[in-house]
Amino acid sequence: MSQEKNKIIEEQRLHIIEQACRQIGKGAFYSTIIIVASFLPVFLLTGQEGKLFSPLAWTKTFILLIDAFIAVTLVPVLILFFLKGNFKSETKNPVNNILQKLYSPIIKICLKWRKTTIGINFIALCISIPMMMSLGTEFMPPLDEGSILFMPVTMPDASNSEIKRILQVQDKIIKSVPEVLNVLGKAGRASTATDNSPISMIETIILLKPKNEWRAGIKKEDIINELNAKLQIPGTVNGFTQPIINRINMLSTGIRTDVGVKILGDNLDTINVIAQKVKQELTGMDGVKDLYSEPITGGKYIDIKINKEEIGRYGLNEDDVNRVIESLIGGMKLTTTIEGRKRFSVNVRLAQDYRNSLEDIKRTIIQTKDFGPIPLSSVADIYFAEGPPMIQSENSLLRGTVLFNVRGRDLGSAVQDAQKKVNETIKKLPKGYFIEWSGQYENQIRASNTLKIIIPIVLFIIFLVLYMVYKSVREAFFSIITVPFALIGGVFMIYFYDVNLSVAVAVGFIALFGIAVQTGIFMVIYLHEAMHKLVELKGNSRETISDEDLTEFVYRGAAQRLRPKIMTVCVALFGLIPILWSHGVGSDVMIPIVLPMIGGVFTSSIHVLLTTPVVFEMVKRYELNKFGKMDMVESSIKH
């Protein structure tokens, strides 16, 4: 008899486990799929933002897919093995009792004052919209690399000796700042064909001491402002950035600052006029720093113009004179020397001492057949001429550029104000000339356009997954409206933390979509379970189900399974909140991702725990009044 009784108890245990897994398994599986689907926009990001965030998306996707598989296969088996012995009622759990005592009176008030509860939610949503509209925008949060790249530009005709002197003076001034550890500067280009820097461009890497050795209350922005004030040298235009982001900007957009205004056309003089107008309009604008127009004129050249009448008088031709100019001044290849497998060209030209000045070049000797040696100045006019120090082209057009960094305000609004001011002044460009805004702003526009296309598609995919869960368009719609209410907390968090909207913040909101819907799925599952119990008890009819019965069973569905809902929220919060206290390298990017997730999880949880039962009751009451019965969803809650 005892053995038979134990067998019955074991069969009951297996039946309970089976029913519980059927109830929750499908919802857990599809909620995981929704989180994976919400990350689709991250996979479609390109450029710098795609390289930065795609590893995060791939890692989370693989983890969640494995998690979804384990949730429906391994977890039920583990429950079967380990969930044995005497079980205590959920009412004996002290944590659950505390949560029930806090939650029960609040949800009862919300179910009583249904319209007020929904109205408060909509008021909070309406308040968050202007707050979000007032936020600044930028491409990516500035990552503190721990160092500074100082990039001053001098006049294009500055001599090598003058550049060397300026470089030494600047390094000495920079080293005088207490927070500076080491300084290393260079002028001109490196020994590579990919570096086209002119001698007038100086690059100085400034390594800073650890922050605990800085003066009290000083920030990196203060150090940059102090350096900028001390390094005001006549004839130079200062520019401050960071080594890594500078190289990324130059490789991706061809612009070494945050923003560049490209003027494209066919004539350098016209481009220079437009560039100077743009620079004049941007001068003094709030947030515009390190403003600099790349010089299109100012380069010094030696022009040698051959006098045809004179060379004819001396029995020479143009080739004779050009050959002398090439071999003695420019350099002419004589032969090639071979050393093993290596080959070296041998060039010859006039020694440095004989070509240091214009007068020395004029005295260069040309040998004639009938008149002996004559100076080069007797058959050619030699003089200095101005020209472009560097000719840049893009898309088969000549290019001029106005460069500037943005400090003290967000990138998006600064560029928008700059565009507005430039467009008001330069209303019409000559035919064949164009203005393009590039740099970090170009990346920001590209990423924003991608997200605008992809996010609606992702919301539609989430809606389809919810429909697969509930087999009801109405239920899927009421679950997906959790998303905008989840945005409320995210907006409040980034607003009060004074964080600009960026790709990192967008990734945080994208991750929030799935988490918010996940919590809502479990609430709706338990509410439908309560409705099935109500129908089993009183039948599915308006005549047998009163409003008080409906409210009571909605309350039971919302309150009786409170602990697993709170656990779902707490797991997300406990994993994210510690990031707020991180201060290492990379925290500048991680915190903007986490902020909307933390705030959104908090407000979406409040919405799911308080508003979802209210909306659910209103829908079921509407169905009873209009159709005489409730629409019973047969999904994961069937048992």
Describe this structure in words.
The longest helix has 41 residues. This protein is of the alpha+beta class and 639 residues long. Strands 5, 6, 13, 14 and 15 form a 5-stranded antiparallel β-sheet that branches. Strands 2-3-1-4 form a 4-stranded antiparallel β-sheet. A two-stranded antiparallel ribbon has the order 7-12. Helix content is 57%, strand content 14%. It is elongated, with a radius of gyration of 37 Å.
Quick tags:
single chain; 639 residues; alpha+beta; 5-stranded antiparallel sheet; 20 helices; 14% strand; disordered C terminus
Number of strands: 15
Largest beta-sheet details? 5 strands, antiparallel
- Class by SSE composition: alpha+beta
Helix content: 55-70%
Question: What percent strand?
Answer: 5-15%
Give a brief outline of the structure.
The chain is 57% helix and 14% strand.
